[in-house]
Every structure is written in structure tokens, then in C-alpha cells.
Write a structure and sequence with these properties.
This protein is mostly beta strands. The protein contains no helices and 11 strands. The strands form 2 sheets. Strands 2, 4, 5, 6, 9, 10 and 11 form a 7-stranded mixed β-sheet that branches. The protein has a 4-stranded antiparallel β-sheet with strand order 1-3-8-7, with no helix packed on it. 32% of the residues are buried.
Length: 118
């Protein structure tokens, strides 16, 4: 089993930046991809970005393209989400999740809160 721990959330003003980290431990070799998701109060959880651990291929939600960048350092078993030009609507709890190849995301971290003030 993989364990995931997020960090780096906080309070930032609009147009500011934050970098979230997702540190993996345990059976990390079984993790094919890491994704970032977010959930705002009263809203459903939504996909933000994902990265394939082996080759670094990435995908993004349209709402964050050009502002957020996902990256990984496999030697550290860590995935990052660099968030620039933050908007109040980016305010949410952010979660990272892991999935095996051909499977859905089934391991989740505890989340980290991001609050963007206007």
C-alpha cells in the first residue's frame, strides 16, 4: 500500500503563488500516476492535474492550464503542484491520490487547505 502526505497549503492573496507537495511512502513502485484533486465547500471533488511517474506525461483541468504545473522527483517520491496566478475560485482542500496502471485513484492523502483572498 502507498501512503500519501500533502503539505504546502495556506492563505495567499489573489495573483499569488503556492507550491503543494505530495510525499509518497510504502509500496511506491506500485504507483503508476499521481493526481491532484480539489474540493471546495458545497462542491464536488474535481480533477486538477496528474502526472505519470515513469515518463512525466502530464494532464490538466482546463481551469488551471497555464497557471498550475505538476512535476515529480522520483528519487524523493514526491510530486509537486506549483500554483501561480491564484484566484479566489481556487480556494479548496487539495488532495493528492495514487493509482495503479489501468485502475482508478484508490489511495488518497489527508488533504491540505488552500485559501485565496481577493
Amino acid at each position: 500500500q502507498v501512503q500519501l502526505v500533502e503539505s504546502g497549503g495556506g492563505l495567499v492573496q489573489a495573483e499569488g503563488s503556492l507550491r503543494l507537495s505530495c510525499a509518497a511512502s510504502g509500496r511506491t513502485f506500485s504507483s503508476y500516476a499521481i493526481g491532484w484533486f480539489r474540493q471546495a465547500p458545497g462542491k464536488e471533488r474535481e480533477f486538477v492535474a496528474a502526472i505519470i511517474r515513469s515518463d512525466g506525461r502530464t494532464s490538466y483541468a482546463d481551469s488551471v492550464k497555464g497557471r498550475f504545473t505538476i512535476s515529480r522527483v522520483n528519487a524523493k517520491n514526491t510530486v509537486y503542484l506549483q500554483m501561480n496566478s491564484l484566484k479566489p475560485e481556487d480556494t479548496a482542500a487539495y488532495y493528492c491520490a495514487s493509482r495503479r496502471i489501468g485502475a482508478s485513484y484508490d489511495v488518497w492523502g489527508q488533504g491540505t487547505q488552500v485559501t485565496v483572498s481577493s
